[in-house]
Write a structure and sequence with these properties.
homodimer, alpha+beta, Alpha-Beta Plaits, 10-stranded mixed beta sheet, 5 helices, 21% helix
Chain lengths: 248, 248
């Protein structure tokens, strides 16, 4: 039995998130079906995170244990031939059986994208939220700096999450504009449920003048979901990178 | 009667190009329908070019003559409320009745995009061609320099075109890589039918080693469509910018 680490991209628009669900099409289910068609054996797949419905991934890592002799490019080609056009595997490598795509990850990067112009943009329709009032990206970048550091991020965790340790280390956080596209980027050693979407929603409330620019530290200190802003829509979110120490 | 210059973006995937056709959905038809719903009057729309089926536009300019009092942002909002999500108007301004979106244009820029990686990319599925063998963007950039200048581009004009003067001035032409995306960019005072797609198809044959890197000048000199390469697929092409002297 060999553990394989698969790296993929997906457009999450058509999917009910990563995780297998009853009566809903998910990315995990779709990938499992492709692995079964390629290897002839039904085997479980473990993902690096559980993305929500409508969330995208430019780099998503997962493992599967297989007896199949297919490796590298041969496995990639075989899987892609059995996957729909909105999911594509682009890396496949052998990892030790102690490797876990979620627990072995030392850092992840998410992007949250906003199309900021009076008119909507057909090319960003499913991949960014549309905000018409002009955003001050420099001010938001200053505000976002308040997230950096090791903090208890329970204020930015969806209510109902069962995670016990809500302390995370945010290593980088920033907002930048490129034409009409405003991108919020955040790297951390781990993320709580809906954390980036609540961070983005809070920044959008700062942008709207509903909260002062320097309000992030006190929202963190409040240790209450009620202190933070609304959860921003899923379609603006994309898992951009997963870092491991040993591989890649 | 006031002539309005409308600027729009569209994802051409679902459309049979710009130009109105019988029994096919086109961008011009869709926009005409929206103008009629907004103004109550059916009026013609003149475009800056005739994009083919599947070709996209980040900036497409067209005019319509109207008695409607709607102007600027009000007209933009009204039109967008009546357009499907893959077409959006983002600018509207008054122009003199002598202004013509095609004949008044002094320059246009097209991009031709190639996703160059072994695995396909779900995010570029309908907006780039997928080439798996590694492309040497620097070499292609050198090759593309051969297009620059005022030349008879009849070798790069689709057979059957009725245009008489096939001399065009290519002002800029280049190829650049950004990660897996290779972009061919070309600016000229005008373009012949399928010109950019034939240029791109010829560059792809150079990339494949079927033609030498310095072959563009002799293909131009041959003055024959047969001398150039195949027409590259429509979905990689996007009209990126239209320049006018008076407005914008």
């Amino acid at each position: 039995m060999q553990r394989l680490l698969l790296t993929l991209r997906y457009d999450g628009t058509r999917y009910h998130g990563w995780q297998v669900q009853k009566n809903a099409v998910t990315v995990q289910q779709t990938l499992q079906d492709a692995v079964e068609r390629v290897t002839g054996v039904r085997s479980g797949i473990t993902g690096c995170s559980r993305t929500d419905a409508g969330v995208h991934a430019d780099m998503f890592c997962c493992t599967t244990d297989t007896e199949s002799p297919l490796r590298g490019d041969d496995m990639i080609s075989a899987l892609n031939a059995n996957l729909p056009r909105d999911i594509a595997v682009y890396d496949c490598r052998e990892v030790p059986n102690t490797f876990h795509p979620r627990y072995s990850a030392v850092r992840k990067r998410y992007l949250y994208r906003i199309w900021n112009d009076r008119a909507r943009n057909p090319f960003w329709e499913n991949h960014a939220v549309h905000i018409t009032r002009p955003l001050d990206a420099d001010m938001l970048n200053q505000a976002a700096a308040g997230f950096v550091g090791r903090h208890d991020f329970v204020s930015f965790c969806a209510a109902g999450s069962s995670v016990e340790d809500t302390v995370r280390n945010v290593l980088h956080c920033g907002v930048a504009r490129e034409g009409g596209l405003v991108t919020f980027s955040v790297e951390a050693d781990g993320f709580l449920y809906n954390m980036v979407r609540i961070m983005a929603g809070t920044l959008l409330e700062i942008a709207a003048g509903k909260r002062p620019c320097d309000s992030i530290p006190e929202i963190i200190a409040a240790r209450s979901r009620d202190a933070a802003g609304a959860t921003a829509p899923a379609k603006g979110l994309i898992l951009s990178r997963v870092y491991y120490n040993d591989v890649k």
